[in-house]
Design goal:
7-stranded mixed sheet; 17 strands; alpha/beta; elongated; FAD/NAD(P)-binding domain; single chain; about 25% helix
Length: about 325
Amino acid sequence: MAIEHIPCLIIGSGPAGYTAAIYAARANLAPVMYMGSQPGGQLTITSDVENFPGYSEGIGGPEMMQDFEKQARRFGTDVRYGMVTNVDLSGDLKKVIVDFEKELTADAVIIATGATAKWLGLKNEERFYSKGVSACAVCDGFFFRGQDVAVVGGGDTAAEEASYLAKLARKVYLIVRRDELRASRIMQKRVMNTPNIEILWNTETIDILGNDEAGVTGAHLRNNLTHEVFDLDVTGFFVAIGHQPNTKVFAGQVDMDNNGYIKTVPGTTNTSVEGVFACGDAQDHVYRQAVTAAGTGCMAALDAERWLSAVEANV
């Protein structure tokens, strides 16, 4: 069987991948997109998106990604199901294996594989996701104005989430399983000095309480020192123990930081490999928003277009 060649390959979907596809298709790059294991990315498990420009009444995450996909297809993107399982990015032609068997090559590759929130593994975590359980305070904090919420974690992510929520919620409980925070000094000071944040030290979450109608109604907790088990009344439960970029398949192929995020040249989406570009949450551990992911998707397509034009001109 002949190996398929693709001028511009986009790996992953979501706001970054679809935006890259829209721009690449309009530039006549004939992009092919493999959507990955979660077509549409993290937004497909998000019920309400109210902070993306253009959706004045808000929109469901799955619907939003359907709109993005339709627009990408409208301009000619070849959108395919499948997951990239192996790559060799070392040569002029990038070699890619899809679903362990399909071989293809590409001139330019745009990585838009996103990231996945780390979860606690609780029984009701998935049940109440988007019904009070969240991994993004900036995305969902608006829905909990004037309410009592809990944040789990002890690092910078948890401190930042708690500080953000404190501006909206009546009370924020920060659940920390140890007797100290791992967050940076400045973030610790910010948390300690915020009146409506209460830290529950040496505390672990046993499960999340709620029902299908109301969503989250509380958290079932245990103090690790006294072994006391108690319930905390909250309507929002934010898991802030970090994210894992979906970049394992590219390990050893492009430069990454210690957490697996792909490094890009500041101001661009260029990676350490010529002709390979990265956008969205696969390379962004700071903002992690749909709108910023879309912005870098645009950048990646423009960077790829310019790179392909330069290569063509030098042939």
